[in-house]
Amino acid sequence: MSGGPIEIEANIAEESERIFQIEEIDIPFEEEILRNPYTLKSWLRYIDHKSEQPISQQIWIYERALKELPGSYKLWKKYLDLRLKHVDGLNAVRYEKEYFKVNNCFERSLVLLHKMPCIWIDYCTFLMSQCRITKTRRTFDRALKALPITQHPRIWEIYLKFAREVGGETAIRLYRRYLKLEPDHVEEYIDLLLSLNRYDEAAKRLAQVHPEEIKSLKVEPIIRSGIRRFTDQVGKLWNSLASYWIKLTHLEKARDVFEEGIATVMTVRDFTQIFDAYAEFEETVLTHKMEEAAERAEQGKENPEEDLDLELRLVRFEQLMNRRPFLVNDVLLRQNPNNVHEWEKRVELWKDNAEKVIETYTKAILTINPKKASGKFHELWVHFAKFYEDGNDLESARTIFEKGTKVNFKSVNDLATLWCEYAEMELRHENYDRAIEVMSRATVPPSNPNVNYRDENIPVQSRIFKSLKLWSFYVDLEESIGTVESTRAVYDRILELKIATPQIIINYANFLEENKYFEESFKVYERGVELFNYPIAFEIWNIYLTKFIKRYGGTKLERARDLFEQALEKCPPKHAKPLYLMYGKLEEDYGLSRHAMRIFDRATKAVADEDRFEMFNFYIAKASANFGVTYTREIYERAIEVLPDKEAKDMCLKYAELERKLGEIDRARSLYAHASQFCDPRTVPSFWTIWHDFEVKHGNEDTFKEMLRIKRSVQAQYNTEVNFISAQILATRQQVQPPVTGVAQASETATALATTDGTTPTNPMQVAEQEALKQTASASTSGPRTLTFVPSTSHQDKKDVSASQVPSNPNEINMDDDNF
Length: 820
Fold this sequence. Notes:
Helices cover 71% and strands 0% of the residues. The protein contains 40 helices and no strands. α29 (557-569) runs antiparallel to α30 and α34 (645-661) packs antiparallel against α35.
């Protein structure tokens, strides 16, 4: 079919308009429909008037009427009957286009009249004559979807006729669908199967319909063999066997089959199928019995046996519903008998029945394989013992714990947890000596102590003595209720076994310190730093040195120095900074200042690169406070030599500010000139603003022009280096430069005139400056950085000069916009 199902027949209308003209006798009807276009009677009178005219004129009138009244059932029915009469008797293959036009009319009518069964029946019947099997079947399905269930029998009547005409697999599938609606018509389906030579399925259907008549087949053995063979259909097969006995009215046998199925299935899906069928069976029997009891009551009859049977069935049904959680649990445990979680669920189901709880725990610990347990098997032992403890039966609880400690669990931690729970039970009942005795038994080493703790082939009982969890609990117990000597013995045993953690080292030292064993606590720290390497040793050294200084101060200075030297000997640069600061503070507080300065100087070389700038600042601050600001010149110079460019620039600015405060203007200017090589004017405008303000305040016209010349040279250098171009553009977009006035505007104007957006300068002076910068850059890459400012050759004893005491510059000039 080439067109859509709701396509309007424009070709018919156009043809009609060409061949038909309104006659004089039609004018009254036309005037009437113009006055009342939505009146059905007017259109029907006009149609009756045209009933003797050619078919094309009648179609034209119908199309006009339906355009105005598209939801009129009467109009559509007459129009469709007319179209069906027109093609009646025509060959569906030869006149395919005419049939196609009628199909379109039906599709258009069903847009608004899809709830009318007569139109669906006419359409489906018409399609059956066209040999379009797929379209016909789909139209029948659409009709069943569109119509209410009460109208389905009318559709199924002709749908089954169509199925019988088509035959084959289509007919079988259609009848199977129909039997879901009308299962009583199975005889028709059997006749169809026989006509199609489907004897196997026909026999099955006959066996289901008349099971009591079949004597030769052994149904039960056949179904049971299927249960053993088809493990994915176990639930359905058990239900089929039970249905077989129900149809034979052997209700007790059917009940036995349901019970057997529930007790043997391995999946929850099969269990649900059987249980739902079982519950439905019991409910049906109960309903029937209750209806009989109601009839007897109406008739005034009494039947004690039937009444007793009804009560028994009610009790049995109630018990079945109450047994459901237990039955589901049985299925899951049959799937995996080592599932600890499901055993715990079963205990929870029996929580009000102590005997059943004990029976469940006992069965669980006998059934579960410790190595294959799914879940925390040791917790099952703990809960079993706690059940006896809650019942004030401590002896039975101890017996359970004792038996549990002999189980070869999956991991050592499981057994350690069991021992700890055993001791905690004794503590809850204030049996402190028993708790310590339990832990001492748990930590007894085996005859061969040289065992591999992680070897899974060795029983956990032979490896438990190296369990850190067990020893941690033991030492906490000794600290709480034991003596100092017994606690020290436990800690020493942990260190001997080499299972101590940094936290245990610290706890041991703190314990000795609290009990005034200071030297012993320091020895523990020393043993700890021998056991662990950095970075773990750093934390122990940090605590050790802090406590040592707090304890002895400067009374054992040489010993403290030796400890610091030991700590720093293998310390990586990442952790060196805090130790050097602590070492320097020790010398400042109790030693000599020059020793402290020497330590800080070592720190600037030993710390990590990211800490070096901060270390230099700290060193400079301490040197300035102890020896004056002039002492810091050498520190500044070395910092500028070793620090990266960005941090060297910041250090130059600090050094220049110091020289400015000391009145060393030339030295400060040289520092600015040296730092300028690290500062692109477009990405680091703050540096040039600082130098600009410095020259305005302390310089003259020549020095200011020299600053502008250096700025142009630096900018030209960065413009010719491709690596900086993208970074410059990004930084220029992200940063908002501060507004500048006066000399700043003049300097920017001069820079813009000197260069042309990174192109090679054409001025001879600029070429010479660029050559000098290239030589400087090559020298910096080939060797260590050399300072271009004036170095300090001798230390002068000068005092700090504040900013207010800076000598005035008689040659200071005032630059403003009028000078340019």
